[in-house]
Amino acid sequence: MKNPKYLVPALALCGLVSLGPASCPKKAPGPATPEATANAEKAPQPPQRVYDERFGITLIVPADWSVTRKPNNPVLFAVAPGAGQYGPMANVVVEKLNQRMAPYDYLEANILGMRISLPGLAIKQGGVELGAGAANAWIHYSYPRKEITVEAIAYCRTVEYNAYVVTAVAPDEMFEKQEPLFRTIGRSLRID
Length: 192
Description:
Blueprint: H1 7-19, H2 34-41, E1 48-52, E2 57-61, E3 66-69, E4 76-84, E5 87-96, H3 103-117, E6 122-131, E7 134-145, E8 148-159, E9 162-171, H4 172-187, E10 190-191
Antiparallel strand pairs: 1-2, 2-10, 3-4, 4-5, 5-9, 6-7, 7-8, 8-9
């Protein structure tokens, strides 16, 4: 070089320019934290298909719900983890009929008996849903229990001389959040 006095500042300038856009080395991923492991374990699991061969019924419930079969009505119970005395839970009742009935007629005929066993029963709404070649009738109601109000939704199907009713219940302060799940459970009822 002709002029060495400019060599040092030029090298310094090159060094600064090369350091400017550089970044710190990236940190290598370490072991999973307990929080990350717990969240991975809590990932939603596919729902469980519950089949009761005694009555030829199938019901779909969340994977973490415990299911119990009983010899008498209600013949099937599905209970959410941490559920209290009044749910969230669902059950299935199977009743023999002395005549063929439409599902909604069956539910309507049972309201009188429900009013006796559930004093303070209030019917909120009901209807019929058509789908997959079958009619499902449903009714949404509430009733007082001790210091709380319980809300329930029941789905009914009738086949020949049998009525199949899925009822899901929860305390009223939980019902709104649970209602979409309860409707999914009720609609999932299949009969062989």
